[in-house]
Specification:
The structure holds 3 protein chains of 3 kinds. Chain A contains 7 helices and no strands. Chain A is mostly helical. Chain A has 2 domains: 81 residues, NADH-ubiquinone/plastoquinone oxidoreductase chain 6, subunit NuoJ (Four Helix Bundle (Hemerythrin (Met), subunit A)), CATH 1.20.120.1200; 40 residues. The N and C termini of chain A lie far apart (64 Å). In chain B, helix 6 runs antiparallel to helix 8, helix 6 runs parallel beside helix 13 and helix 10 crosses helix 12. The longest helix of chain B is centred in the C-terminal third of the chain and has 33 residues. Chain B is globular. The N and C termini of chain B lie far apart (49 Å). Chain C is mostly helical. Chain C has one domain. Chain C contains 20 helices and 2 strands. In chain C, strands 1-2 form a two-stranded antiparallel ribbon. The longest helix of chain C has 32 residues. The interface between A and C is large, with 30 and 46 residues.
Chain lengths: 165, 365, 482
């Protein structure tokens, strides 16, 4: 049963991720990305981590994507110019590399037993457990990330602000 | 696999979803009438008066009108998104109620069976509600964009900016509540406020009222209600994001707006005013548990019924007060300017919330 | 788990740098635009304080023990790298005094962002867990993205920042994906535990190869090794010149430190798997960097390609492995910081008023007009080319010896050949300076900061070349801790 749900979520996620890239219309791409992120949230639920799932929806779908759309709407792009980003003379490279990489990955992944992968035992991860882990085991990365976010904010302001008179 | 207990569980779940869903679908009918009546009386006129006594059937007439109106899709619109957008607004506003508790577990008379007056008690209900209600914005953004109209696009843009800005303040307010109640589960939050109105989070002085004010201001902005209804500012945008919509699709937007208003009221009650807890301790402590100890028979069943109904009564009453004040404010306050709106969000509410978090933190040590 | 004094002590240098950066963001408001040099001075003071504490920690019992639940360690290796990083940061700040005024980017954030980046680099050098390495590498990169785009009026700078950000984000994703594979295979991200798990040969699944490839790719982007180098020339050319120097000496050294630690500590049991991949990247970087550099006309671009080549040498040290390999990389990064920042300070000197001083032909006949400058440039170029008696020679020699001791003579031969190719374009600049007559009158900037930086860089380049014994011993002692 769980495997079935996983396959549904995963395949929808992959298809919608493809749609993000393939749609010409940026608003539809954003819609597809939303769908993809929601599917990832569902996978988190399957991994017994409702907290992550909800945060995924809250942060990515609820906030980040709205900002994406905000920018898309301000620029009012109705049709993306694909060519501008991928010069046609290099496109054969893309077409050549993608199948090779796909094939390689399939080969390797099918040739590996993924026993170690999967949700840990012990049922649902509680918020309290996550909170405790963040402030004990992962204290250092947690603090570093807080500095990182500050830097990203300062950096964004520095980039956006006009500095000359 | 499918034994009778499971089927019963599923049936109860289905009934709950059905009841909540139909109540939510039906609520706008009295609410629109009420809103117009309140507006009328505030503006010293009568409001709807023709259809039915005191105009009570007016909403029904409106509904028939909506159903019969032509559903126009603009020629240049992104038709697919245009049709999808109202649904995208509607679905999250309803889905939020999955996590909302209307009461604690109650015993059904004559069966001895316990039923919870909520659909699901989630470990992360608070975050779930914030996350899902944040999704409602997409219908507005996509509707505004897909209409391919300047006014609608501007409405959608304003809405996006406004929602993002006020979601921060809203989340901070909710963090405050979580700090006060020590839980992310709404049922636990309500339970932590039992024992008279002094235990309500609102009366956790001095931070409680401040959290409430931040929450309610952000709530007004999130639901696009006056004084923060920039996205549908009639004065400058026609009708904002739904200017191109007509008929049932328009009705969906209105429905979503009313349900969102109800949601904010419900959340305010749960977060700050004790949920279904009575404001004072009853002389006889009437809960499902105590009722069990009264010897069987009609007497006990009657008490059970009371225990089930009274919390709902308190809950609905508190929510009604909030819904009324929503309407009251709508017809009392003028609309803010857009830059003022942004300034309130970023320069007042967010710094205030941060200070408040610090104070709350110190008080809760 | 409760953290004790030792955990706090261990991160004092990092805390000083990050905390000073946060404070300076506020102090910046109080300082008039003309006097932003105060922010720079305070930043340098903060780095000095951090250096003092790093030195202080050397003798204490904080050393060598993993703290913060295995996330962080202060050992000889990290301390050595931290000093290289302090040096690179301070020198770049000194180079900036004049340049920021010249380019009208005289803001406090410029220095605070460098400090933030430094804190990330320091953590990257000390992190002993893939998770903390990842966040540290991000903390080190993000300020640099911003600094690269600091010349808002210059389209090249904006383009460079754009490319760097997008490719940097992409590479972070690849790195993270690789880390997640490692976690999936071994069930841990802590490097010594990873090594413990990988000691079991049944763990060596094809998925491990994917993980290694992704780690190499992700780190390859950060250190600009071929074929993950494409951002480097544009970013180096577009960035403000002191930042170019900073990028090539600081973040690159820190990323090298992280790479060394990940591969020689965490993935050592899978040595036979990664050594080929790393060797390929190393050789490609050597060949591509040194050959393409010949065709460059812009000196910053040329140094970008040269730095790609130098990454190749550093990676060869990693391929050699063992204490000798690790310490050769460490020594090389220290040498590279001196000589490269020296070369960049000369380029910055050439930037004055309307004169960009970025074209190689601008250096024609410099010896006739500015003898001292030409001499210093000669020292740095000789060192970059790897000619004795400069530090560059010793650095390369040490790496080649490590390779030969491991029996990898073929790689050593390729490296020697490529350094001969590299010598061509370094010495071409010397030829231009000394053998030709000046075409245009040259103006040079004068600033005390620049002079000090030049003096330090030149002294370091010569000292490490003439008297390498002590420093090599230091590197060996430090490298032995891996």
């Amino acid at each position: 049963m769980e495997r079935l749900f996983f396959l549904i979520f995963a395949s929808v996620a992959v298809v919608s991720a493809l749609c993000v890239v393939l749609f010409r219309n940026p608003v539809r791409s954003a819609l597809a990305l939303m769908l993809c992120l929601l599917q990832v949230a569902c996978v988190f639920v399957l991994l017994r981590s409702p907290f992550l799932a909800v945060v995924q929806v809250f942060v990515y779908v609820g906030a980040v994507m709205v900002l994406f759309l905000f920018v898309v709407m301000i620029l009012d792009i109705r049709q993306a110019e694909l060519e501008a980003f991928f010069p046609p003379r290099n496109r054969w490279l893309m077409y050549a590399i993608i199948p090779v990489i796909t094939f390689e990955f399939l080969l390797v992944i099918l040739g590996t037993s993924f026993e170690g992968f999967g949700p840990g035992a012990g049922g649902e991860t509680k918020v309290e457990v996550i909170g405790r882990a963040l402030f004990t085991e992962y204290l250092l990365p947690f603090e570093v990330v807080s500095v990182l976010l500050l830097v990203a904010m300062v950096g964004a302001i520095v980039m956006a602000k006009k500095r000359w008179d | 696999m499918l034994d009778s207990a499971l089927i019963l569980e599923l049936a109860i779940m289905f009934i709950k979803v059905f009841v909540v869903g139909s109540v939510l679908f039906a609520l706008p009918i009295p609410l629109t009438w009420l809103e117009r009546k309140v507006a009328g009386h505030i503006q010293v006129r009568l409001g709807p008066f023709r259809v039915g006594p005191h105009g009570v059937l007016q909403p029904l007439a409106d509904m028939i009108k909506m159903l019969l109106k032509e559903d126009i899709v603009p020629e240049k619109a992104d038709k697919w998104l245009f049709r999808l957008a109202p649904i995208m607004t509607l679905v999250p506003t309803f889905t939020v109620f999955v996590a909302i508790p209307f009461g604690d577990k109650v015993r059904i008379p004559f069966t001895g069976r316990e039923v919870a007056l909520y659909i699901s008690d989630m470990n992360v209900a608070v975050l779930y509600i914030l996350a899902i209600s944040g999704l409602g914005i997409y219908g507005i953004i996509f509707g505004g964009w897909a209409s391919n109209s300047k006014y609608a696009l501007l409405g959608g843009l304003r809405s996006a900016a406004q929602m993002i800005s006020y979601e921060v303040a809203m989340s901070f307010a909710v963090i405050g509540v979580v700090m006060l109640s020590n839980s992310l589960s709404l049922v636990e939050i309500v339970k932590s406020q039992s024992g008279g109105f002094l235990h309500w989070n609102f009366f956790y002085l001095p931070v409680g009222p401040l959290w409430f004010i931040i929450f309610i201001i952000a709530g007004f902005a999130e639901t696009n209600r006056i004084p923060f209804d920039m996205p549908e500012d009639e004065g400058s945008l026609g009708a904002g994001y739904h200017v191109e919509y007509s008929g049932m699709r328009f009705a969906y937007y209105m429905l979503a707006e009313y349900v969102a208003m109800v949601t904010v009221s419900v959340l305010a009650v749960i977060f700050f005013f004790g949920g279904w807890n009575p404001p004072f301790n009853l002389p006889f402590h009437l809960t499902g548990e105590t009722a069990m100890f009264v010897n069987g028979g009609w007497n006990a069943e009657f008490l059970n019924l009371l225990a089930a109904v009274i919390p709902l009564f308190w809950f609905a009453g508190k929510v009604a007060v909030f819904i009324y004040s929503f309407m009251w404010i709508r017809f009392t306050l003028p609309r803010y300017r857009y830059d003022q709106l942004m300034r309130i969000g970023w320069r007042v509410l967010i710094p205030l919330s941060m200070v408040n978090i610090l104070v709350t933190g110190f008080m809760r040590i | 788990m409760i953290f004790g004094l030792r955990d706090v002590m261990a991160v004092i240098p990092e805390a000083i740098v990050a905390g000073a950066a946060c404070l300076l963001l506020l102090v910046d408001f109080l300082i008039a635009k003309k006097r932003k040099i105060i922010v720079a001075a305070l930043s340098i003071a903060a780095v000095a304080a951090a250096a003092f504490f790093s030195l202080y920690l050397v003798g204490t019992d904080v050393m060598w023990k993993k703290v913060f639940a295995g996330m962080f360690v202060v050992d000889g290796f990290s301390t050595f790298f931290k000093f290289v990083l302090y040096l690179a940061t301070v020198l770049s700040m000194m180079l900036s005094f004049h340049y920021v005024k010249e380019e009208d980017i005289n803001t406090g954030e410029y220095y605070t962002l460098m400090l933030f980046s430094l804190s990330g680099m320091m953590i990257a050098a000390s992190a002993s867990d893939l998770l903390s390495i990842y966040v540290a590498v991000e903390l080190m990169s993000i300020p640099v993205y911003v600094l690269v785009g600091f010349l808002q009026k210059d389209a090249r700078s904006n383009e460079a920042a754009m490319k760097y950000v997008i490719l940097g984000a992409f590479s972070s994703g690849v790195l993270l994906y690789g880390i997640s594979f490692i976690y999936g295979i071994t069930g841990t991200t802590e490097l010594s535990a990873v090594a413990g798990a990988l000691a079991d040969p049944s763990m060596h699944t094809p998925a491990l190869s994917i993980a290694i490839i992704m780690l190499v790719a992700g780190f390859g982007f950060k250190i600009a090794g071929v074929p993950f180098h494409m951002w480097a020339p544009d970013a180096y050319e577009g960035a403000p010149t002191p930042i170019t120097g900073f990028m090539s000496a600081g973040p690159k050294a820190a990323a090298c430190a992280a790479v060394l630690r990940v591969f020689t500590e965490g993935l050592q049991p899978a040595y036979s798997r990664w050594v080929v991949i790393v060797a390929i990247v190393a050789v490609l970087s050597l060949v591509y960097g040194n050959i393409v550099a010949i065709a460059q006309k812009n000196i910053k671009r040329m140094l970008a390609y040269s730095s790609i080549g130098h990454v190749g040498y550093a990676l060869l040290g990693l391929v050699a492995g063992g204490t000798e390999g690790a310490s050769s990389v460490m020594y090389y990064m220290a040498v590279y910081a001196f000589m490269n920042l020296g070369a960049f300070s000369i380029i910055i000197m050439m930037r004055k008023g309307e004169q960009k001083g970025e074209m190689i032909e601008d250096y024609t006949g410099l010896a006739k007009t500015r003898g001292g400058m030409a001499l210093l440039m000669l020292i740095f170029m000789f060192s970059l080319a790897g000619l004795p008696p400069t530090a560059g020679f010793i650095g390369k020699f040490y790496i080649f010896m490590a390779l030969i001791h491991k029996g990898m003579v073929g790689l050593a031969v390729i490296a020697v050949l490529m350094s001969a190719v590299g010598a061509y374009f370094y010495i071409r600049i010397v030829m231009l300076m000394y053998m030709k007559d000046p075409v245009n009158p040259v103006e040079t900037a004068s600033s005390r900061g620049l002079y000090y930086a030049l003096a330090i860089a030149a002294a370091g380049t010569i000292l490490l070349g003439v008297y390498p014994g002590y420093f090599i011993k230091l590197a060996q002692m430090a490298g032995g801790s891996l």
